[in-house]
Structures
1.
Amino acid sequence: MATVELSGLTKTYGNYTALKGLNLSIADGEFIVLLGPSGCGKSTTMRLVAGLEEITSGEILIGGERVNERPARDRNLAMVFQNYALYPHMTVGENIGYPLKIAGIRKDERQKAVDAAAAKVEMGHLLSRRPSELSGGQRQRVALARAIVRTPRLFLMDEPLSNLDAKLRTVMRAELKHLQKELATTTIYVTHDQVEAMTLADRIVILNDAVIQQVGTPAEIYARPANTFVASFIGSPPMNLISGTLADGILTHAAGQLPMAGAGEVKLGVRPEDIYLCEGDDPVHFEGQVYSAELLGDCVLLNIKTDEGLLSARVPPTVQLTMGDTVKLRFDTNSLHLYDATTGNRRDS
Amino acid sequence: MKRSKTLRILSVVGLLIIGLIVLLPFFWMISVSLKPATEPFAIPARLWPESPTLANYASAFRPEFRTYFLNSMIVSGASVVITVSLALFAAYSFTRGQLFALSFMLGAVVLAQMFPHAAIIIPIYKMMRSWDLLNSYTSLILSYVSITLPVAIWMLRGFLVKLPVSLEEAAAVDGASPMRVFRDIVVPLARPGIISVAVYVLIITWQEFLFALSFTSTNDMRTLPVGLNDFIGQYGIRYGELMASSVMVSMPVVAVFFFLQRYFVAGLTAGAVKG
């Protein structure tokens, strides 16, 4: 259990910069999720913390102690790899007990710890199996048990659920969250899946192009994306971004206009759930043709063809629309997001 | 459908013929070893002896043969152990090392293998003489290690590049030192490769003749392939005993190969594909 302090963390491979001056403070016991598309630097960050890559510049403090020069084996961390990295020539029990064996812990004590860890992930009955005889979910549990068998200062998890099928992923996600809260061990979790990030994280760190885009709680990030990258990355379907010009209290865009203060070229962000079909004398903010209507059970997802391109809107399941129908839409003016067209940064503070 | 059937029959027949050509000398070796001294040159020649006898084996299994056998075991055994150990470390460095110079060295290893034995035997002989190592196990073991090591390194490298790095990383995060990772993770997982390299070195060194003949001068240092030469005299060749000895010499390697061929074939292809 420890705090983690990353300051000015940079990693380059030749001419390629994988990580550019990353600063991040992680509190003791916090569940931090690094989220971003592939190649954004999230895995690099984790590998630097683990000690599997050399730092180009910057500093890593774990529990207040600088660990830059410490090899991975002396950092007292536990890591769960994307492909689980179970030792194929060892049984499940030997796999879980390996960190303790290296630490030189006596066999009977080791057995006790292995049994306890295996019981926590409900693998106690399979200790004598080999990894090749296990299903994906079971392998995942063994990898977790190997991480929790000792009391590391930090858990590092590199897309641990990405090789599981959708149903199992949901189950394991819940178990993981529960386990982390129970053990109260600081955790850094890497994923490209925003649902995992939203559900697991205390705080999400969104990375793109080797730079942090935004750090915040899932609710903060969803409610106030700091720039157009975050806005279009978080949310499913993602936020609609509409180019427009602000002048004289009116925002004019290719498919309509609406009143709004400010001036200059902007991008207006509207989440699909903040778009409504016009009724009666509702002001019309947008007009277009239905491109597709997908019934998802609790709602209908409309894709609307406009001069701005496709817009998505989430409307009640009772709405009956077919392809080609003309629809008039209005936005929830209290939930609009405004971004600078050139910098992509959020305009309102 | 019909064409493919004829094709299959043709290929089976072809394989049978090739198999026959390959196996005939071995069959003849066994056949002659069982024939009484008068029979090998009987006309018409018989494929199988009229009255098989083990007399050749009895006289071939003389005290010298036992000495040769022991010498071969020592020299081959030591060569296998040393080559496999060195090759493991070298191949691991070549696989995981990130120095640019390593790729040159890996090329140099191949180069070292290109010289015919006949070309390097004289310099090696002179080296052995200056170190006062002639007519010793050490001279043979040293030269056998040096001639088998290049291929051994490449074969093992073929295995090691296929091991996922994340296993070694996982062990490192679990607290293992580099040597410990090597011992606990790399070596056990490379076992098929280690076995195939061991078989390869055994086969090469067990049958090696040129170095063994050149570097040993007394009977108590000779190895089996050189010992077989004893039956080839100035005035005649004792074929019965020669063949009986040959059968006995072949047995250990054939047995090893029989049980471990699975690994050996895997090793050759692994090296080939990755090399």
2.
Amino acid sequence: MSHPLRGLGPLTRAYLLQSFRSRTAILWNLVFPMVWLFLFGFIFYRDDASLMMPGLFTITLISGAFFGVSYLMVSEREAGILRLYRVTPVSALTVVLANAIRAMAVLSISVGAQASVGWVLFRYEVAGSVTLTFFIMLIGAAAFVPLGMFVGSVAQDMRTAPAISNLIFFPLVFASGAARPAFMLPDWMQAVMRIIPSSYLVEAMQGVMLRGHGLVELAGPITVLLLTLVVGAWFNSKMFRWETSEPLNKRAMLTAILVLTLLYVTAALLAPDFEMVRPPGA
Amino acid sequence: MIVQAHGLRKEYGDTVALRSLDIEIEAGGIVGILGPNGAGKTTFVETLEGLRAPTSGSVTVLGMDPTTQGKALRERLGVQLQKTALPKELTVREVLGLFASFYASASPTNSILEKVDLISEANQKTATLSGGQQQRLVVAIALSHDPELVILDEPTTGLDPKARRDLHEVIRQLREQGRTTLLTTHYIEEAEQLCDRVIMIRDGEIVADGAPFDLVGRSSESSTIWIHVDGPMDPAPLIAAGVLPLGQEGAHHKFVTTDPTATILALGDMLRSQGLRLVDLRLRRPTLEDVYLEFMGDAPDDATLEDGAESSP
């Protein structure tokens, strides 16, 4: 009997090789994060690099998850490469996991490069533990990669994938305190922010990087992110499509959207106020 | 039986792709599925591969149900798909190694690359391969785990004659190794040269099934005979035997007949009685193409000879 994860190592390696050898992938994963870094560092946050970094890391993780991961899945499916895997004994779980591991590795490189170059250029400070900072980045990546893959499964082709990704990307970036500090957003937007998944990542990142919080103080947002990971991973296993001609599992898609909405409405109702809505030092 | 299908039917909405197909295929040899585009060839093989679930009827491949036992089946099945793509950033060797890792056991990469004549391209990225080389790599992937049954869906479509001949050689080797190969094609010559058995499909139904040689023999199409003799000839005895004269072509008298054997016997008698000597005799039997056209009737037809013509002497 075949092992359900047979081929995971070689497939992950193959995916990584493809990412490192593809010019488009390098553009997305290394050049764009640098562009964001320069844009934010030299124009938007000239005097406050420490305040900039948590939001910047969040933007990099989200854009990597939505544009990188979903595009790759859709293009691989559209080209017929996934079909070729489908006629072998390799399992859907193996393909999904290899994709997720590749995405995590690539995102680590993107964020790592941004953190290093950012430190050299802007000398930002980290008030709390650097290890915890990286841990939260990893959890953030793990929470958003399945959401990116979810888009990859829902999108029919390379024309619809950017539309759906953008539709999700902009609120996640601009209504979460990632692009513009939360305390500068109007009251109604601060209320909306509480149902936006990326807000919890910005809150946790700011908590450790600006306020020096530890794991205990950040347990709330981290729990929300981990629950997002669990929901996203579960629905990915239900939604994965080998071929464009396979029908979309609409029931699973609607259930996923409903469960995620319930999760974030509950979080918005139960969670204490975000600390990031108060200006640093206030 | 390596493949058994009974009452196999597949519908896509209002379109019926396969109507109640009954097919049994024994182990060994090369079986060709021949038919125009839209005849149901790809639907049929993709049903065997477990990519499509039949609307009704039953199918077993290597004794397994492709829909419910797909994973176990794919361990023993080698598949080349009609529409597919290779990861273009990987080398030939990397791609083959990747696919080999999906199987419980696999042949050494080099031996497969030698088999499909890609050993000198082993370290080249797949994007740099020619169409024929890419197709051979896809076939190599299908062979990487020593499958008992190999299913090739139009493996030579779009290839130049040299690339096609190379691939034919690979397919013939499979027969020599005792494997069963099922291939779809719309090149009639390919089916005639390569296949031990040809199943012709039209509109989702089998219209002819047998060895190419037997199918040609069963044809009701006429044979043409050209006769060149060393003096004036009276064809009356031939015409009496049911042969239709079609006049002269150069020095040759041309006739058509539905029974060439009887015609040759009548010709011998006629030559003796008229004291003539036979200088030249040419006979053109119906080809598989004639049989194909006879069975396909007015089906929208795109099966071609000109692209498939490659090695006729």
